[in-house]
Fold this sequence. Notes:
Elements: H1 3-6, H2 9-30, H3 34-45, H4 66-78, H5 80-90, H6 102-117, H7 123-137, H8 141-157
Helix pairs in contact: 2-3, 2-4, 2-6, 3-4, 4-6, 5-6, 5-8, 6-7, 6-8, 7-8
Amino acid sequence: MTEKSKASAAQRRSAARFxxxxxxxxxxxxxLPAADIVREYSDFRLxxxxxxxxxxxxxxxIDPDRGFFADxxxxxxxxxxxxxxxxxxxxxxxxxxxxxxTVLRSILRAGTYELIARxxxxxxxxxxxxxxxxxxxxxENEPKLVNAVLDRIGKTLRPGEAGxx
Length: 165
């Protein structure tokens, strides 16, 4: 049995989130429809190699949950206006999603989408996953921003989970 086949559902979802952030970044830069990006990733990138040769054996890489990946990318694309409105409301005064770096914007959009549409994923898991993802791309300030923004949005959308009644 390979490492790929031993990956837990949680690990496969984490890998899907990371791929979705990259796909959302690519979609924004290329202006391609979400369905095209999902198809490209499914055909060429979700095998763990990103379409290139790596020194890491393919068996050691986690196969992302492809359905979850597609839901994230297409869900963000379909609800972009609503997501950006929520994010803008959670950012400090004078800041908007358009002022944020593209990867950071992709992280916040994906996390906000999960908080809205994926009630099967606990709020604390969503926030932790996207803060961890932010650490993969940024140093200290951006992960703190992701934590603060997603926490504010989570408290608004899921007050029961946030301990607010």
